[in-house]
Design brief:
Elements (H helix, E strand, L loop, with lengths): L10 H10 L6 H10 L14 H10 L9 E4 L5 E6 L5 E8 L4 E4 L3 E3 L8 H5 L1 E4 L2 H9 L9 E4 L9 H12 L11 E5 L3 H10 L3 E5 L5 H7 L2 H4 L2 H8 L20 E7 L7 H10 L6 E6 L13 H13 L4 E3 L13 H11 L1
Parallel strand pairs: 4-7, 7-8, 8-9, 9-10, 10-11, 11-12
Antiparallel strand pairs: 1-2, 2-3, 3-4, 5-6
Length: about 350
Amino acid sequence: MENKTLSGMSLSELQNVAYKLGMPQYAAKQIAAWLYTKQIFSISEMTNISKTFRDKLETEYELGRKHPIKKMVSKDGTVKYLFPTQNGHFIETVYIPTADRATLCVSSQVGCKMGCQFCMTGRQGFQAQLTAADILNQIYALPEFQKVTNIVFMGQGEPLDNIDNVLRACEILTAPYGLAWSPKRITVSTVGNLKGLKRFLNECQCNLAVSLHFPTSEQRLEFMPAEKAWPIAKVIEQLKEYEFCNGEHQWHEGAKQRRLSFEYIIFAGLNDSHRHRNAIVELLSGLDCRVNLIPFHSIPDSPFKAAPEQRMKEIRDYLTYKGVFSTLRASRGEDIMAACGLLTTKEKQNKTK
């Protein structure tokens, strides 16, 4: 079936659109500029394209932009948006401003197949893949679009389980005809999807974040079912075939400027012992990476508890002392249900009433 949504098309695909409609050759670059450097919501806004060709475009294609339908603002400035998708689902996007940057956390799927016990999105199960247009809409339809400095694929879903559309979105965001961002401004997370990981490492230069959370295979398997298909040991083995730089060292000539990080949510009494700290050090030995220690955001009916801040600092200091550079990620937006999945679950329940 022919794709009828302009947003998410590459320059070559837009050239085919222009050719099909009898438009001049340069029209594809004009369309790309409107799609990927400006914040428009209708084809009629493409004012340097003749009305005749705009009418043809509107007859044959849709733009692929939808405004958010809900907004929640935290006391710390974090903003969560609820976006409709092209096929009638809902996804969440979180805008996180700080003093020196503004990070946008985007979703890659509706629901998730991974089934992590501590994740609200995992409870939803998998519902649909997001198209490239759905992914890009979270960025281009964002009211704060012009302020965004960094994008992280850490929202709902497993990005590498939707590898085609995630790679397409990353290409557009970094291409000269697109947003022309440095790949260093974009981070893609994964629970360890080995098939998607190989493609990502070979086809994309954006940063990578691995959702670790438990440093032993036994515990990971208990709380993260994906461990059965993609053991963390095999993930580490594959990562060691590539070159990374965690930003603490000077780039050397020819080095690929891609950072590798590991996300580690700290649960009180579950993965915060001295044994776990040593297991992290042993597991990540030989990798140029960093560990981001994350406070747990509570979700309804969950047995998991956040570790005290002092415990998190102790783990950070110990890991860094042992040569594994670690940082504490500040808790943001907890008062607006910033943990992924809470808002979409509520919206889905409202629709079924």
